[in-house]
Specification:
The protein is mainly alpha-helical. It contains five helices and no strands.
Length: 157
């Protein structure tokens, strides 16, 4: 990577890989969670994530590139950590730990989308900027929903 445009495209490939990996990983997390509220929140975010993959494909198209993923070590690590929670955590700790793991993913995504959005602006990719802003807002809302769920019920169990 030598230019901001290179960094933008590489990071876009990174988050595209990450979102596709999450589409595959979230059903396992949903199955491991207990309680209707948490299961429903995960199911809702899975559908939102599928939509984000489609939106990212529009971002690629808007900059004249074919949608493709670049292996994202960060998301691989976060998924591996979540798999460990699924295998090891029990009782009231399990849902709390699953929410914490999900929030780690959200925070990663918020960081990536915030950066991509600003780079799109600087590079003059207006459509990409708008699309990425929408995803960023969704990720922030998902994080807030997880916080509210943890505070209102899961952490109190």
């Amino acid at each position: 990577m030598k230019t901001l445009s290179d960094a933008f495209e590489h990071t876009l490939q990174d988050i595209y890989y990450a979102e596709n990996a999450l589409v595959k990983a979230l059903p396992k997390v949903q199955a491991a969670a207990s309680g209707k509220k948490l299961k429903d929140a995960i199911a809702e975010h899975l559908e939102e994530t599928k939509g984000q993959v489609k939106t990212l494909e529009k971002v690629f198209k808007s900059i004249g590139k074919k949608a493709s993923g670049e292996k994202c070590d960060a998301i691989e690590g976060l998924i591996k950590e979540t798999d460990g929670i699924i295998e090891e955590a029990t009782g009231v700790a399990k849902n709390a730990a699953l929410i914490a793991a999900a929030q780690a993913v959200e925070h990663y995504e918020i960081a990536r989308y915030g950066t991509l959005r600003e780079w799109a602006k600087v590079l003059g990719h207006t459509e990409a900027h708008d699309l990425l802003s929408g995803i960023l807002d969704q990720e922030k809302a998902a994080n807030s929903k997880l916080t509210n769920l943890a505070v209102s019920s899961v952490n109190a169990e």
